Amino acid sequence: MIAILVPLLFSILEFGAALERWLAQDAATVQAARYAGEIGGDGAEVRGLLAEQLRASGIDPGVATIEIAPARVGWREPVRVSVSTEYRVAIPFLFTTTLPIRSSAISRGEVNR
Amino acid sequence: MNAVRDDHASAAVTTVVLLPLLLTVLAGVLQLGALRVAAARVRAAADLATLVAVNDQDDAELSRTGSLRLAGDASDVAREYFERELELSEALLAASSSEIAAMADIAAYPSAPSVDARTGARYQRPAVRLAADVPVRTPVFGALAFHPVTTIGVLAVSSPR
Description:
The complex is a heterodimer. Chain A is an alpha+beta fold. Chain A contains two helices and three strands; from the N terminus they run ααβββ. Chain A has helices spanning 2-39, 44-56, and strands at residues 65-69, 78-91, 95-108. In chain A, helix 1 (2-39) packs antiparallel against helix 2.
């Protein structure tokens, strides 16, 4: 009985936490994309903002893979920010696995170079 | 001793009998969570699309009168970026991003004040409004005799400052 109910309970908790993390990471990525458009691409400011937002959501920015492409955009050019992290899910009596969590957002360059 | 053994046996039987129900509830909860993520992504896509569209101003009008006026292609830009954003979540969608973006009701109000014909809202600044119905895959709901596709309605309005 325990071997059935405990995995069920942990599945709800673990996958719920994974979904919450996915939502938080998506929101941080959208903010970063907006900022990347504003400053014209990749930069320490964008990465700093993203790191701060991820940290506030309980995600270690040190283990996140961050890509901002292209690194430099001009007026009206699209810029894409992608963030990828891994989340470890452990269900007692059943399995332990790692879920990839990926977020991307596109904005448009606002700097007229 | 017999009573305790009977209790254990009946608890085990109850658990096994309820197992399909518990698994169904678990699957439904996870599907609802995934739907929430999809809804947040669709909302963010619409917000970003309208923001991008209003960030571009009619430069000639701005230098001539000093007032903000949207660029002539604002609604096209909103549609293009809505499609681009949705394309990033295509696996969650039940239709292609280009179809959804093409069907979206996007209106640009280049000068203010103006009244939105769809919502009746009054805009005190130039604005871009995007309204769309976005079909999202919900296969678990489908397996549970509900709809395998759930439509999320989204409305976003942005104005320059």
